[in-house]
Amino acid sequence: MKAFSEIIGQEKAIDFLKRVIGGDRIPHAYLFTGINGVGKSTTALALARTVNCTSDTTGDGCGRCITCRQLTSGNFPDIISIAPDGQNIKIEQIRELNRALNYKPVSGKYRITIIDRAEMMTEEAANSFLKTLEEPPPGNIIVLKVVDLRDLLPTIVSRCQRVPFNPLNRDTIKEYLVAHHNQDDNTAYLAAGIADGSLGKAIEICEEGFLDARRELIELILGLKDMPGKQAVELAFEYGKKYSKKTQDDQSDIDLHGVIGIWKTCLRDILLASVRGNYDMMENRDYRDRIAALAAKYDADKLIESFFLLEDCQRDLIRNPNSGLLMEKMLLELKTLNN
Ligand SMILES: [Zn+2]
Fold first, then answer.
1. Residue 96 burial (CB count, 10 A)
2. How close is the Cα of 178 to the center of ligand 1, in Å?
Protein backbone atom coordinates (compact mmCIF):
# COMPACT_ATOMS: atom_id res chain seq x y z
CA MET A 1 0.00 0.00 0.00
CA LYS A 2 1.57 3.23 -1.16
CA ALA A 3 0.75 6.92 -0.96
CA PHE A 4 0.50 9.02 -4.09
CA SER A 5 3.98 10.41 -3.45
CA GLU A 6 5.51 6.91 -3.44
CA ILE A 7 4.18 5.86 -6.84
CA ILE A 8 6.77 6.18 -9.55
CA GLY A 9 6.45 7.36 -13.13
CA GLN A 10 2.79 8.42 -13.02
CA GLU A 11 3.14 12.05 -11.99
CA LYS A 12 0.69 13.25 -14.61
CA ALA A 13 -2.11 10.87 -13.59
CA ILE A 14 -1.54 11.59 -9.92
CA ASP A 15 -1.39 15.36 -10.27
CA PHE A 16 -4.65 15.16 -12.14
CA LEU A 17 -6.29 13.01 -9.47
CA LYS A 18 -5.08 15.26 -6.68
CA ARG A 19 -6.51 18.24 -8.49
CA VAL A 20 -9.94 16.74 -9.07
CA ILE A 21 -10.33 15.30 -5.58
CA GLY A 22 -9.24 18.62 -4.12
CA GLY A 23 -12.06 20.37 -5.98
CA ASP A 24 -15.66 20.96 -4.96
CA ARG A 25 -17.25 18.21 -6.97
CA ILE A 26 -15.26 14.98 -6.80
CA PRO A 27 -15.95 12.76 -9.83
CA HIS A 28 -17.31 9.42 -8.62
CA ALA A 29 -16.34 7.14 -11.47
CA TYR A 30 -12.86 6.88 -12.94
CA LEU A 31 -11.46 4.91 -15.83
CA PHE A 32 -7.78 4.07 -15.37
CA THR A 33 -6.26 3.06 -18.72
CA GLY A 34 -2.81 1.66 -19.50
CA ILE A 35 -0.82 -1.56 -19.80
CA ASN A 36 -0.61 -3.94 -16.83
CA GLY A 37 1.94 -3.31 -14.14
CA VAL A 38 2.19 0.47 -14.35
CA GLY A 39 0.45 1.30 -11.07
CA LYS A 40 -3.29 1.47 -11.75
CA SER A 41 -4.30 -0.63 -8.71
CA THR A 42 -1.66 0.97 -6.50
CA THR A 43 -2.99 4.37 -7.46
CA ALA A 44 -6.59 3.34 -6.76
CA LEU A 45 -5.56 2.35 -3.22
CA ALA A 46 -3.60 5.57 -2.80
CA LEU A 47 -6.73 7.40 -3.87
CA ALA A 48 -8.64 5.57 -1.14
CA ARG A 49 -6.04 6.75 1.36
CA THR A 50 -6.17 10.37 0.27
CA VAL A 51 -9.95 10.70 0.28
CA ASN A 52 -10.36 8.84 3.58
CA CYS A 53 -7.46 10.10 5.68
CA THR A 54 -8.81 11.94 8.70
CA SER A 55 -5.88 14.21 9.40
CA ASP A 56 -4.29 15.11 6.15
CA THR A 57 -3.06 18.44 4.95
CA THR A 58 -0.83 17.33 2.08
CA GLY A 59 -3.22 15.46 -0.19
CA ASP A 60 -1.15 12.34 0.35
CA GLY A 61 -2.71 10.73 3.45
CA CYS A 62 -0.97 11.12 6.82
CA GLY A 63 -0.04 7.44 7.21
CA ARG A 64 -0.81 7.54 10.95
CA CYS A 65 -4.56 7.93 11.45
CA ILE A 66 -6.71 4.86 11.93
CA THR A 67 -7.90 4.89 8.31
CA CYS A 68 -4.39 5.14 6.90
CA ARG A 69 -3.26 2.35 9.18
CA GLN A 70 -6.19 0.14 8.20
CA LEU A 71 -5.33 0.70 4.57
CA THR A 72 -1.66 -0.08 5.13
CA SER A 73 -2.43 -3.35 6.89
CA GLY A 74 -5.07 -4.32 4.32
CA ASN A 75 -7.86 -4.14 6.90
CA PHE A 76 -9.76 -1.16 5.58
CA PRO A 77 -13.33 -2.43 5.19
CA ASP A 78 -14.48 -0.03 2.49
CA ILE A 79 -12.65 -1.49 -0.48
CA ILE A 80 -14.51 -3.72 -2.90
CA SER A 81 -12.60 -5.53 -5.64
CA ILE A 82 -14.39 -7.01 -8.61
CA ALA A 83 -12.61 -9.23 -11.12
CA PRO A 84 -13.79 -11.63 -13.83
CA ASP A 85 -15.41 -14.75 -12.43
CA GLY A 86 -14.08 -17.20 -15.01
CA GLN A 87 -14.32 -15.68 -18.47
CA ASN A 88 -16.42 -12.66 -17.64
CA ILE A 89 -17.63 -10.19 -15.08
CA LYS A 90 -21.16 -11.46 -14.90
CA ILE A 91 -24.43 -9.65 -14.44
CA GLU A 92 -24.92 -11.34 -11.04
CA GLN A 93 -21.66 -9.80 -9.82
CA ILE A 94 -22.75 -6.34 -10.90
CA ARG A 95 -26.25 -6.73 -9.41
CA GLU A 96 -24.73 -7.71 -6.10
CA LEU A 97 -22.34 -4.77 -6.32
CA ASN A 98 -25.21 -2.38 -7.09
CA ARG A 99 -26.94 -3.58 -3.92
CA ALA A 100 -23.81 -3.33 -1.78
CA LEU A 101 -23.08 0.23 -2.84
CA ASN A 102 -26.40 1.41 -1.40
CA TYR A 103 -25.15 0.85 2.14
CA LYS A 104 -23.11 3.57 3.79
CA PRO A 105 -19.35 2.98 4.01
CA VAL A 106 -18.47 1.14 7.23
CA SER A 107 -15.42 3.03 8.36
CA GLY A 108 -14.33 5.72 5.93
CA LYS A 109 -15.89 8.65 4.21
CA TYR A 110 -15.70 6.89 0.85
CA ARG A 111 -15.97 3.30 -0.21
CA ILE A 112 -13.69 2.54 -3.18
CA THR A 113 -14.76 -0.10 -5.67
CA ILE A 114 -12.04 -1.31 -8.05
CA ILE A 115 -13.17 -3.17 -11.15
CA ASP A 116 -10.29 -5.10 -12.62
CA ARG A 117 -10.36 -5.87 -16.36
CA ALA A 118 -13.57 -3.91 -16.79
CA GLU A 119 -13.66 -4.88 -20.47
CA MET A 120 -14.61 -8.39 -19.36
CA MET A 121 -18.06 -7.23 -18.27
CA THR A 122 -20.72 -8.94 -20.35
CA GLU A 123 -22.94 -6.53 -22.23
CA GLU A 124 -25.75 -7.29 -19.78
CA ALA A 125 -23.46 -6.64 -16.83
CA ALA A 126 -22.25 -3.37 -18.35
CA ASN A 127 -25.80 -2.22 -19.02
CA SER A 128 -26.92 -2.99 -15.50
CA PHE A 129 -24.00 -0.90 -14.23
CA LEU A 130 -24.72 2.24 -16.24
CA LYS A 131 -27.07 3.87 -13.75
CA THR A 132 -24.67 3.28 -10.85
CA LEU A 133 -21.78 4.72 -12.85
CA GLU A 134 -23.81 7.75 -13.81
CA GLU A 135 -24.68 8.54 -10.22
CA PRO A 136 -23.31 6.21 -7.56
CA PRO A 137 -25.00 6.33 -4.13
CA PRO A 138 -23.29 8.94 -1.90
CA GLY A 139 -19.98 7.89 -0.34
CA ASN A 140 -18.85 5.78 -3.29
CA ILE A 141 -15.95 6.10 -5.69
CA ILE A 142 -15.66 3.59 -8.51
CA VAL A 143 -12.43 2.89 -10.39
CA LEU A 144 -12.56 0.84 -13.59
CA LYS A 145 -9.29 -0.58 -14.86
CA VAL A 146 -8.73 -1.38 -18.50
CA VAL A 147 -5.73 -1.75 -20.80
CA ASP A 148 -7.35 -0.23 -23.87
CA LEU A 149 -10.51 1.82 -23.53
CA ARG A 150 -11.62 0.83 -27.02
CA ASP A 151 -12.50 -2.54 -25.48
CA LEU A 152 -15.26 -0.91 -23.42
CA LEU A 153 -18.75 0.11 -24.46
CA PRO A 154 -18.86 3.84 -25.24
CA THR A 155 -21.75 4.17 -22.78
CA ILE A 156 -19.38 3.07 -19.99
CA VAL A 157 -16.50 5.27 -21.14
CA SER A 158 -18.65 8.39 -21.35
CA ARG A 159 -19.76 8.03 -17.74
CA CYS A 160 -16.24 7.92 -16.32
CA GLN A 161 -13.45 10.38 -15.75
CA ARG A 162 -10.58 9.05 -17.84
CA VAL A 163 -7.10 8.83 -16.30
CA PRO A 164 -4.37 7.53 -18.63
CA PHE A 165 -1.32 5.74 -17.17
CA ASN A 166 1.91 5.75 -19.21
CA PRO A 167 4.32 2.89 -19.72
CA LEU A 168 7.31 3.66 -17.49
CA ASN A 169 10.65 4.47 -19.03
CA ARG A 170 13.43 1.98 -18.83
CA ASP A 171 15.70 3.93 -16.49
CA THR A 172 12.88 4.51 -14.01
CA ILE A 173 12.20 0.76 -13.88
CA LYS A 174 15.88 -0.07 -13.70
CA GLU A 175 16.49 2.27 -10.77
CA TYR A 176 13.49 0.89 -8.93
CA LEU A 177 14.71 -2.70 -9.35
CA VAL A 178 18.15 -1.78 -8.06
CA ALA A 179 16.78 0.17 -5.09
CA HIS A 180 13.92 -2.11 -4.03
CA HIS A 181 14.55 -5.57 -5.45
CA ASN A 182 18.24 -6.09 -4.84
CA GLN A 183 19.18 -6.34 -8.50
CA ASP A 184 22.56 -5.44 -9.90
CA ASP A 185 22.71 -2.77 -12.60
CA ASN A 186 23.10 -5.17 -15.51
CA THR A 187 20.22 -7.50 -14.56
CA ALA A 188 17.96 -4.57 -13.72
CA TYR A 189 18.70 -2.97 -17.06
CA LEU A 190 17.94 -6.18 -18.95
CA ALA A 191 14.75 -6.90 -17.03
CA ALA A 192 13.56 -3.31 -17.54
CA GLY A 193 14.12 -3.65 -21.28
CA ILE A 194 12.21 -6.91 -21.55
CA ALA A 195 9.36 -5.57 -19.42
CA ASP A 196 8.54 -2.95 -22.05
CA GLY A 197 7.33 -0.22 -19.71
CA SER A 198 5.63 -2.43 -17.13
CA LEU A 199 7.14 -2.24 -13.65
CA GLY A 200 5.00 -5.18 -12.52
CA LYS A 201 6.36 -7.33 -15.31
CA ALA A 202 9.92 -6.23 -14.57
CA ILE A 203 9.53 -7.32 -10.96
CA GLU A 204 8.19 -10.70 -12.09
CA ILE A 205 11.10 -11.06 -14.47
CA CYS A 206 13.56 -10.47 -11.62
CA GLU A 207 12.07 -13.26 -9.55
CA GLU A 208 14.05 -16.40 -9.14
CA GLY A 209 14.66 -18.39 -12.26
CA PHE A 210 14.89 -15.53 -14.66
CA LEU A 211 18.64 -15.46 -15.00
CA ASP A 212 18.91 -19.18 -15.70
CA ALA A 213 16.08 -19.06 -18.17
CA ARG A 214 17.65 -16.08 -19.91
CA ARG A 215 21.00 -17.87 -20.20
CA GLU A 216 19.36 -20.89 -21.78
CA LEU A 217 17.40 -18.74 -24.22
CA ILE A 218 20.42 -16.72 -25.25
CA GLU A 219 22.47 -19.88 -25.79
CA LEU A 220 19.75 -21.17 -28.07
CA ILE A 221 19.44 -18.10 -30.22
CA LEU A 222 23.19 -17.54 -30.47
CA GLY A 223 23.70 -21.18 -31.37
CA LEU A 224 20.92 -21.35 -33.92
CA LYS A 225 22.95 -20.35 -36.94
CA ASP A 226 25.58 -23.08 -36.58
CA MET A 227 23.12 -25.73 -35.42
CA PRO A 228 22.32 -28.67 -37.73
CA GLY A 229 18.82 -28.32 -39.21
CA LYS A 230 17.50 -31.44 -37.52
CA GLN A 231 18.54 -30.23 -34.10
CA ALA A 232 16.94 -26.84 -34.76
CA VAL A 233 13.64 -28.54 -35.59
CA GLU A 234 13.78 -30.57 -32.39
CA LEU A 235 14.58 -27.53 -30.31
CA ALA A 236 11.79 -25.52 -31.91
CA PHE A 237 9.31 -28.23 -30.92
CA GLU A 238 10.74 -28.52 -27.45
CA TYR A 239 10.65 -24.80 -26.76
CA GLY A 240 7.23 -24.33 -28.32
CA LYS A 241 5.89 -26.96 -25.98
CA LYS A 242 7.78 -25.78 -22.93
CA TYR A 243 6.76 -22.15 -23.10
CA SER A 244 3.20 -22.66 -24.26
CA LYS A 245 2.45 -24.15 -20.86
CA LYS A 246 3.12 -20.93 -19.03
CA THR A 247 -0.04 -19.38 -17.73
CA GLN A 248 -0.69 -15.92 -16.43
CA ASP A 249 -0.78 -17.23 -12.87
CA ASP A 250 2.71 -18.62 -13.21
CA GLN A 251 4.62 -15.45 -12.46
CA SER A 252 8.02 -16.84 -11.67
CA ASP A 253 8.94 -17.56 -15.26
CA ILE A 254 9.13 -15.85 -18.58
CA ASP A 255 6.15 -16.10 -20.91
CA LEU A 256 6.37 -16.44 -24.68
CA HIS A 257 6.27 -12.71 -25.17
CA GLY A 258 9.22 -12.34 -22.80
CA VAL A 259 11.15 -15.15 -24.49
CA ILE A 260 10.89 -13.38 -27.79
CA GLY A 261 11.78 -10.10 -26.10
CA ILE A 262 15.07 -11.65 -25.00
CA TRP A 263 15.78 -12.96 -28.49
CA LYS A 264 15.07 -9.55 -29.96
CA THR A 265 17.75 -8.04 -27.74
CA CYS A 266 20.22 -10.66 -29.02
CA LEU A 267 19.50 -9.97 -32.68
CA ARG A 268 19.75 -6.28 -32.07
CA ASP A 269 23.10 -6.78 -30.37
CA ILE A 270 24.44 -8.85 -33.28
CA LEU A 271 23.23 -6.18 -35.66
CA LEU A 272 24.88 -3.41 -33.66
CA ALA A 273 28.11 -5.36 -33.57
CA SER A 274 28.02 -6.17 -37.28
CA VAL A 275 27.22 -2.76 -38.71
CA ARG A 276 28.85 -0.40 -36.28
CA GLY A 277 31.07 -2.40 -34.01
CA ASN A 278 29.16 -0.57 -31.33
CA TYR A 279 29.39 -2.38 -28.02
CA ASP A 280 28.32 0.38 -25.66
CA MET A 281 24.69 0.16 -26.69
CA MET A 282 24.55 -3.61 -26.30
CA GLU A 283 21.90 -5.13 -24.09
CA ASN A 284 23.60 -8.42 -23.37
CA ARG A 285 26.99 -7.07 -22.44
CA ASP A 286 27.86 -10.29 -20.65
CA TYR A 287 27.80 -12.02 -24.08
CA ARG A 288 29.86 -9.39 -25.80
CA ASP A 289 32.63 -11.65 -27.13
CA ARG A 290 30.30 -14.37 -28.42
CA ILE A 291 28.15 -11.77 -30.13
CA ALA A 292 31.12 -10.00 -31.69
CA ALA A 293 32.36 -13.31 -33.14
CA LEU A 294 28.90 -14.17 -34.47
CA ALA A 295 28.36 -10.77 -36.05
CA ALA A 296 30.87 -11.52 -38.81
CA LYS A 297 28.84 -14.57 -39.89
CA TYR A 298 25.54 -12.79 -40.28
CA ASP A 299 24.12 -10.82 -43.18
CA ALA A 300 22.80 -7.46 -41.94
CA ASP A 301 19.71 -7.43 -44.19
CA LYS A 302 18.74 -10.87 -43.03
CA LEU A 303 19.24 -9.84 -39.43
CA ILE A 304 16.84 -6.97 -39.90
CA GLU A 305 14.35 -9.29 -41.54
CA SER A 306 14.77 -11.71 -38.64
CA PHE A 307 14.12 -8.95 -36.15
CA PHE A 308 10.81 -8.15 -37.84
CA LEU A 309 9.95 -11.84 -37.84
CA LEU A 310 10.22 -11.77 -34.06
CA GLU A 311 8.16 -8.60 -33.85
CA ASP A 312 5.42 -10.19 -35.97
CA CYS A 313 5.43 -13.21 -33.72
CA GLN A 314 5.09 -11.03 -30.63
CA ARG A 315 2.17 -9.26 -32.22
CA ASP A 316 0.47 -12.56 -33.08
CA LEU A 317 0.99 -13.69 -29.49
CA ILE A 318 -1.22 -10.87 -28.23
CA ARG A 319 -4.16 -12.81 -29.66
CA ASN A 320 -2.77 -16.26 -28.81
CA PRO A 321 -0.61 -15.70 -25.75
CA ASN A 322 0.14 -19.39 -25.17
CA SER A 323 0.68 -20.53 -28.70
CA GLY A 324 3.80 -22.65 -28.74
CA LEU A 325 2.99 -23.26 -32.39
CA LEU A 326 3.70 -19.63 -33.24
CA MET A 327 7.08 -19.88 -31.56
CA GLU A 328 7.91 -23.14 -33.32
CA LYS A 329 7.11 -21.65 -36.70
CA MET A 330 9.06 -18.49 -35.97
CA LEU A 331 12.19 -20.38 -34.88
CA LEU A 332 12.16 -22.50 -38.01
CA GLU A 333 11.71 -19.46 -40.23
CA LEU A 334 14.56 -17.78 -38.39
CA LYS A 335 16.80 -20.79 -38.97
CA THR A 336 15.93 -20.97 -42.67
CA LEU A 337 16.43 -17.27 -43.16
CA ASN A 338 19.92 -17.21 -41.67
CA ASN A 339 21.29 -20.43 -43.11
ZN1 LIG B 1 -4.31 9.45 7.58
1. 13
2. 30
